[in-house]
Design brief:
mainly beta; 299 residues; 41% strand
């Protein structure tokens, strides 16, 4: 019986070698080409903004540590307004995403909209006395006429937060963490006079606040996008957040059971602030997307 020479290796059959090479090629291609299964493409500015409806609740009293912020306007219609310094005051509202009359945001948009939670703090500043014409963007309200208004003094700064430790997925977080809205009093306070059914979209609240029909009454504020000094917004995200304008209307509706939450800031400039206890107590306002002076979000 012949012995195998030292160092001799068993020969791999040619057809097995070809099969292994083919499989390795497929795996290599998949690792380079295939995107992660959870990847979400950014929606267009039009699709995102047009589907952003927020129900705003009064909250239990809370005043954060005094923080001075420098704000500049992002929307092209208001680009000429001056940069301003404000100080965060008492928190007065939490605004959370809802759908109206069971018209849900489309697939790929709802994944982002459902995580837009904005905590609103009292601020002050001089009136701007800027005349604008607002057009409704959401499909449910597009039949409403255009409305001339005058922007007055700033009243709130609404900034992004997460509730009860539920952080948005990475692609969603890259957008919602940069949404800062400066809310101005407006005149006239024209009533909408519509009944709308509101349904919670954020996973923390879908099982805590049932759908309800509310009456939408007087217009109170126009909230417009701003950038805080120190917040580096990527260009693709800037192209979306600069178009987020919402008009706030007073609402009346069924009472809610108090909802206890813990809020954490998502924006990099405010990430150092401590977690905040917040109890939702009363339905207060509905914020709906609008365009100013006929300049509509692209897409």
């Amino acid at each position: 019986m012949r012995r195998r020479a030292p160092g001799n290796r068993t020969t791999v059959r040619p057809e097995l070698r070809r099969l292994l090479a083919a499989l390795l090629g497929v795996f290599a291609a998949m690792s380079v080409i295939a995107p992660p299964a959870s990847a979400l493409a950014l929606p267009t500015p039009k699709d995102f903004v047009s589907n952003l409806d927020l129900e705003c609740y009064k909250t239990s009293p809370y005043t954060p540590p005094a923080v001075g912020l420098t704000l500049r306007h992002l929307n092209p219609v208001l680009g000429g307004l001056p940069i301003e310094q404000v100080t965060l005051g008492a928190r007065e509202q939490l605004c959370v995403p809802v759908a109206k009359n069971n018209v849900l945001p489309p697939a790929g948009v709802i994944d982002f909209v459902r995580f837009v939670d904005l905590s609103c703090y009292r601020i002050s500043g001089p009136p701007v006395n800027r005349n604008l014409v607002l057009s409704h963007l959401n499909p449910v309200l597009q039949g409403l006429p255009r409305q001339p208004i005058t922007m007055l003094q700033p009243q709130h700064l609404c900034v992004p937060v997460a509730k009860n430790g539920v952080i948005p997925p990475a692609e969603v977080l890259s957008l919602v963490r940069h949404i800062d809205l400066k809310c101005y009093a407006i005149t006239p306070n024209t009533p909408m006079n519509r009944n709308l059914n509101l349904r919670q979209l954020n996973p923390v609240l879908t099982n805590q606040i049932p759908p309800a029909t509310v009456q939408v009454t007087a217009a109170r504020q126009l909230c417009v996008p701003v950038q805080k000094a120190g917040d580096d917004i990527p260009p693709a995200i800037m192209n979306i957040v600069r178009w987020i304008d919402v008009e706030k209307f007073d609402i009346t509706g069924p009472a809610i059971n108090p909802v206890n939450l813990t809020l954490r800031h998502l924006n990099p400039v405010l990430g150092h602030l401590p977690a905040e206890p917040a109890t939702l107590t009363t339905r207060h306002q509905l914020a709906v997307p609008v365009a100013k002076d006929g300049q509509f979000p692209p897409g």
